[in-house]
Amino acid sequence: MESSSSSLSFSILRVPFFLEPDYPENIVSIGTNRERLIQKWGGPKGWEVQKKRHDLKGRGQKAGIPHFNLDRLTGNTMASHRLIQHVGKLYGLSVSEKLYDRLNIYYFVDGHSLNDRPRLA
What we know:
Layout: E1 31-32, H1 33-40, H2 44-54, H3 56-62, E2 73-74, H4 78-91, H5 93-109, H6 117-120
Helix pairs in contact: 1-2, 4-5
């Protein structure tokens, strides 16, 4: 088998997805993330089991999120996805990645809604 001297070049691009696609776009917040997850996982006991099972705190820290604000506002995230796509088209991948990182802190740590258009502007 011959070895190739050519190298491959590629980029990694984040692709957004909706955890809760049924949330309406015209409402800034549906409630807190804690409320959403307790309901999703069958009550407080199920919530505690899932937190440990998925190591949410550890995974967040590996992604640069020092702690999760569990009382952050949750809602439809389409506005933030549109903003990231727009910034990426105008300024490139490196700028949109910096915006992703800032929005992670804005949402997960500071607790702001990703559907609050005046704040996103």
